[in-house]
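Subject: design request, 205 residues
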C-alpha cells in the first residue's frame, strides 16, 4: 500500500520565518533613516508561502490534497527608484489528479511544478518605509510528472506564459526589506496553471 504523502505545516513554517526575519531585522537595523537615493542597485531575496495548482481540463477531476508549499529565490537590479528588472526560481510543489480509464477505474497522476521567470518590476513608495510593488514578465514553467496508465492525459510538460504579480514591502533599514507577494505564473504545462502567495525578505547591496 502506498504511504500517504506528508505535508509540512506551512502556517507554522510561515510563522517561524516571520519571527526569524523580525529578529534578524532588529539585529542589523540602522538607527539613521536610509538616504533617499539608496533604492537603486542590486538585491537578492527569498520567499516562502503557498501554491495554488490546478489542471486546465474541464472534463477531469480537480487537484487533490492540501495546498502545496512554495519557495522562491530571486535577484534583481533597480535601475531607478521606480523601475527595475528581476529573475528567479520558484518551486511550486507537488500535485496529483485522477482520471477515469476506459474500464471505469481511476488512474492517478502526480507531478512536481516549478518556474524560472524574468520580469520588469515597478515600485510606488507610500512613505514611512512602505511601498507597493509589481512585476510583469515571462514564466518558463515545467511540470515533472510520473508515468501513469492513462496515456491520453499527463500533467507533465513545459510552458512559457505571461507572469503578473503584485505585492508590498516594508523597508526595515537601508539594506533589509520585508515582502509579501501574490504572483500568477499562468500555465506551467498544458494541463497545469500556478499561482503563489509568499512572504519573505530582500537584501539590497
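Subject: RE: design request

Done. Sequence follows.
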Amino acid at each position: 500500500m502506498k504511504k500517504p504523502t506528508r505535508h509540512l505545516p506551512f502556517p507554522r513554517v510561515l510563522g517561524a520565518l516571520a519571527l526569524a526575519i523580525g529578529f534578524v531585522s532588529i539585529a542589523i537595523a540602522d538607527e539613521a533613516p536610509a538616504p533617499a537615493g539608496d533604492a537603486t542597485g542590486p538585491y537578492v531575496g527569498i520567499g516562502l508561502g503557498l501554491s495554488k495548482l490546478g489542471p486546465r481540463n474541464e472534463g477531469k477531476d480537480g487537484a487533490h490534497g492540501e495546498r502545496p508549499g512554495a519557495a522562491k529565490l530571486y535577484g534583481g537590479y533597480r535601475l531607478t527608484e521606480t523601475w527595475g528588472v528581476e529573475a528567479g526560481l520558484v518551486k511550486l510543489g507537488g500535485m496529483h489528479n485522477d482520471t477515469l480509464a476506459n474500464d471505469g477505474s481511476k488512474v492517478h497522476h502526480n507531478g512536481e511544478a516549478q518556474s524560472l521567470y524574468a520580469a520588469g518590476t515597478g515600485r510606488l513608495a507610500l512613505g514611512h518605509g512602505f511601498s507597493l510593488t509589481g512585476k510583469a514578465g515571462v514564466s518558463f514553467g515545467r511540470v515533472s510528472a510520473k508515468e501513469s496508465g492513462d496515456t491520453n492525459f499527463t500533467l507533465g510538460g513545459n510552458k512559457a506564459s505571461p507572469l503578473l504579480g503584485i505585492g508590498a514591502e516594508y523597508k526595515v533599514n537601508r539594506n533589509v526589506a520585508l515582502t509579501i507577494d501574490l504572483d500568477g505564473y499562468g500555465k506551467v504545462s498544458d494541463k497545469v496553471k500556478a499561482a503563489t502567495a509568499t512572504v519573505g525578505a530582500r537584501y539590497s547591496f
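Confidence is low (pLDDT under 50) at residues 1-11, 24-37, 57-66.
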